[in-house]
Specification:
about 210 residues, mainly alpha, 10 helices, disordered N terminus
């Protein structure tokens, strides 16, 4: 079977010729099931090397929290993966915090993250928020130093997010100079001539003789 062939090849990971070849056996779903400890380690190694992989299902990884944390750490240097499915195993508090930390400050690419059985916590809510920013509001464009986002690109994203209060707050808190720019470009307030109670312009005072 393909899995048996994979086990033979992964037995010596140092001599494996290609990261893409490792995953090629599982196209088009890229599902890695019943992974041994060595295979899980190799999958993590490939993610850290940032191969051009769009989606990955690792439903067969070890069920312990350490494995989940290891995948979170691997995402810190991966800027290609859009979708990760870690299967039916509960995402515990420390693992949730690890994914939260990576998505908060290092990974601006991941758009979909599938897991089950996790208890509700603030980290999970914020993870979903970061995924939303990555998918719909160009966080990679704005935050990745290699992208060199312009002020115009920041403004374009802000305008697109005009109906998303939390998105606006998040981006403006990260780049408060946009508030100064908005104030600078705002038209001056319209000053109406002072008027009397009749609604007519007030007459000038008579010049004293």
């Amino acid at each position: 079977s393909r899995m048996n062939q994979l086990e033979e090849v992964v037995a010596d990971t140092e001599s494996f010729p290609s990261a893409n070849a490792f995953f090629a056996a599982f196209q088009p779903q890229y599902k890695l099931k019943k992974l041994s400890t060595k295979q899980t380690a190799y999958a993590l190694q490939m993610l850290r090397k940032n191969i051009a992989l769009d989606r990955l299902c690792v439903s067969g990884i070890e069920k312990d929290e350490a494995s989940h944390i290891a995948f979170a750490v691997a995402l810190a240097t991966n800027t290609h993966l859009l979708e990760l499915d870690i299967g039916q195993f509960p995402l515990k508090s420390k693992a949730a915090k690890a994914f939260h930390s990576v998505l908060d400050s290092k990974n601006y690419t991941l758009e979909k993250f599938y897991f089950t059985g996790a208890h509700r916590c603030q980290s999970l809510d914020e993870i979903n928020f970061f995924l939303k920013l990555n998918k719909y509001f160009d966080r990679k464009l704005l935050f990745d130093p290699e992208q060199h986002a312009t002020q115009e690109e920041w403004v374009n994203v802000i305008v697109r997010a005009k109906d998303e209060v939390f998105v606006l707050f998040y981006y403006l808190s990260k780049n408060p100079s946009l508030l100064a720019l908005a104030a600078k470009n705002s038209p001056p307030p319209y000053n109406t001539p002072s008027s009397n109670q009749s609604g007519q312009p007030a007459s000038k005072k008579a010049k004293l003789s």
